[in-house]
Amino acid sequence: MRTDGCSTDSNGRSRNAPTFDSNCKPGRHSRHQIQQQHPHLSSARWRHDPNHLHLREREALRPRPFNRKSTKPLPKCCRTQHDSPVSPHNSTASGRHHLTRTSTMRKSKTYVVWQWNCRGYGKKRGHFQQHINALPVEDRPDVIALQEPRRLAKLSGYVTFGCDKSEKTQVTTLVKRNVPVILHDTGISTIDHLVIEIIAPKKADTRSLFVLNIYSGPRSKHKFA
């Protein structure tokens, strides 16, 4: 029976004394050393149980992934600069250049012009129409300049511009229907020719295109200026 005010159990051990894990050897750690390692915990509450640790210590002991990539989506204003392979030292300038170049390429318009000295179009119209229809729509020519058709040539999907300066039609220009065009008169009547102007869309970064379709026969070389 103890008289110092401390209660004991049946084995004579104090009930208020700190308990230790059975794996720890007695005499290896003193109470002072335990309090030094965890000064904010009293010796009565200290046990070798991680649940008794402070929240900050448990957060420090929690394993963290190394070099984890962020899954947060980038803002729209920065996606082009981060996605494009530009130098990190000049990312802003390179990103602006990339955007400007892309917008210019989208606005530009390329026109395809064919030239054909058919030497008689009447009997060749069917084969030529089949050849045009076999092409993809985006690969079909916008303008077809014909020489020596002998008469006004016609083609499905195109508008015909002809010149009748001489007895036979020597010049015909076919323009795709969805292409805006203006026919210009040069005032010259000594040689067969046609001048058309393709009007570029307002939003496109392309100037108007002038197409001159002219025919000068072997005996009319002196008329060509």
Tag the structure with descriptive keywords:
single chain; 225 residues; alpha+beta; Deoxyribonuclease I, Chain A; 4-stranded mixed sheet; 3-stranded antiparallel sheet; elongated; Putative tick transposon; Endo/exonu/phosph_ase_sf
Instruction: Sketch the major β-sheet.
Output: 4 strands, mixed
Per CATH, what is the topology of the domain at 113-223?
Answer: Deoxyribonuclease I, Chain A
Shape type = elongated
The ordered H/E elements are: HHHHEHEEEEEE
CATH class of the domain at 113-223: Alpha Beta
The span between the termini is 136 Å
Name given to the CATH homologous superfamily of the domain at 113-223:
Endonuclease/exonuclease/phosphatase
Which band does the percent of strand residues land in? 15-25%
What percent of residues adopt helix (DSSP H or I)? 10-25%
Total DSSP helices: 5
**Radius of gyration over all CA atoms, rounded:** 46 Å
The overall pLDDT, averaged over residues, is 70
Strand order of the largest sheet: 1-2-4-3
How many E-type strands? 7
CATH architecture of the domain at 113-223: 4-Layer Sandwich
Ranges with pLDDT <50 over ≥5 residues? Answer: 41-47, 80-91, 96-106
Give your account of this protein's structure.
The protein has 5 helices and 7 strands, in the order H-H-H-H-E-H-E-E-E-E-E-E. A 4-stranded mixed β-sheet has the order 1-2-4-3, with no helix packed on it. A 3-stranded antiparallel β-sheet has the order 5-6-7, with no helix packed on it. Among the domains are: 31-59, no CATH class; 113-223, Deoxyribonuclease I, Chain A (4-Layer Sandwich), CATH 3.60.10. The longest helix has 17 residues, at 91-107. The protein is elongated and about 105 Å long. The protein has helices at residues 31-37, 55-61, 76-83, 91-107, 125-134; strands at residues 113-117, 143-150, 158-163, 169-176, 181-184, 192-198, 209-215. By secondary structure, it is α+β, with helices and mostly antiparallel strands. 22% of the residues lie in helices and 20% in strands. InterPro entries: Endo/exonu/phosph_ase_sf. Residues 46-62 have a biased composition (Basic and acidic residues). Residues 95-104 have a biased composition (Basic residues).
